[in-house]
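Something for you to look into today, if you have time. What I am after is a single protein written out in full by you. I want to see for myself how the chain folds. Could you add the entry underneath, on a fresh line?
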Amino acid sequence: MRIATLGISHETNTFSRVLAEYDKFEEVELLRGHEILERHADSNYTIAGYVEASRQLGFELVPLMFARTGPIGTITKDAYDRLSGEMLGMLRDQGPWGAVLIANHGAAVSEEFPDMDAEFARAIREIVGHDIPVGITLDMHSNISHELIDNTTACVVWRTNPHLDTRLRGRKTADLIYRAALGEIDPKQWIATPPMLVNIVRQFTGEEPMKGLVDDALAANERPGILDTSVAEGYPYADVEEMGMSFIAIADGDMSLARDAAYWMAGRAWGQRVELNVPVPGIVEALTMAEERYVGPKPEGVTNFVPADGSALAAPVADSDHSHLGPIVLMDVGDNIGGGSSADSTFILAQAKQMGVKGLLQSLYDPEAIAACLAAGIGTEVTLELGGKTDEMHGEPVRVTGTVRAISDGDFEETRPIHGGYRYFSAGTCVRLDTTDGHTLLLTERRSGNTSREQMYHIGIWPEKYRVVVAKGVVSPRPAYQPIAAEVILVNTPGVTTADLDTFTYERRRIPLYPFEEATWEITP
């Protein structure tokens, strides 16, 4: 049996001014044919799960084309037309197919299609027909519509945030679709979409309330006749009608079973809608907490265990007498690179300088500063205006004097379990700058999320030795930094991914939608 795989993976922040043009995909990943397997077969990403299934179950996985770029703004019409046109042409010309496996993200918005993922699935369905099973595996930050469910046979969502089970869930999708193609099962799926969202600062599945909702999904999956269950947290920075939480159940041949399981999961979440939107500290409070709680560096070689599937990733595990040692890691919510932010916010750095905080480590996207450091050379002291250059939402440039300690090409490989399951990274030219006021800044030529410690190690920076580490993210940096941290503190900062959703003007979202408005919802269908 020949099963095609293809995908356009993008998390679209519709409030970002950085458009997702075609060259942005070329810059990160625009792979065709065997290139897809070379990059992803041995990773922990969804496609690796597809590959694993093909080897174990004995079908032929035919990689067509895969495009991905970092979370930024809306996909241009030109980019979508070129990407989808080539992919759909491959699908049309290289058939017939026994099934199709899609590797999208699930929160994509293009200039023409606010629900790009559903449009992509619809176009695939139009080519292969209604009798061919079509499966899709989505990120937990998906905004999933009824149209997407209608145009797929099985929609499976990752269950961990940070995303450490990507390969496992891809494997599950492939298993369901292969069995459906053989006629062994008849998947019937239902989606429940209560009018609510979960704030980005409460989306960590290693602690309540999200941990309990994932446990509910696992319990519902044990019901007789249920093939799979998913809970999608949603992506609040996409101004689309389907923005918010969703719950999917897939049953074997019985839609009523799927409907009942989906509504049960959704009802459990609806009952915790207040807890899912509790705020976190601001910058001054968080820096004060970091100063008060820092004890000392983590001894070399001492880390906390992070399981490969992320199932037990919660508070740092007690590690002899060293559990309280290590840096205080501050999660910069407003500059969440994995959520489509600018990567050059200066709010925390500026406040740390004002408060006299020492021993701070963070990254900053600043190609202009990179050029100045390259011109100066290693070992040279430079004075720069850093960060705050993408827009007016992420602070003013901060004047910094420091020494250029190292320069790299920014290519690194991560083999540890990390958010998203990717293995190969390119941050562009990188510079390590040690400032005269006791900080270390990693300057990057490209927007590069803090999801891997290799991002720091590859240029000679050892985050374990710092007092405060600023990670630009909310949950995605946890697998990298929680194992070395004494404590992780979320910090609500201004920016295009701030937890203060009232700062954004939504034009397409549902009304009412909690917590924007009080809402009622019938828990039973």
Observations:
- The chain has 14 helices and 19 strands.
- The chain has a mean pLDDT of 94.
- The radius of gyration is 23 Å.
- Residues 283-498 form one domain.
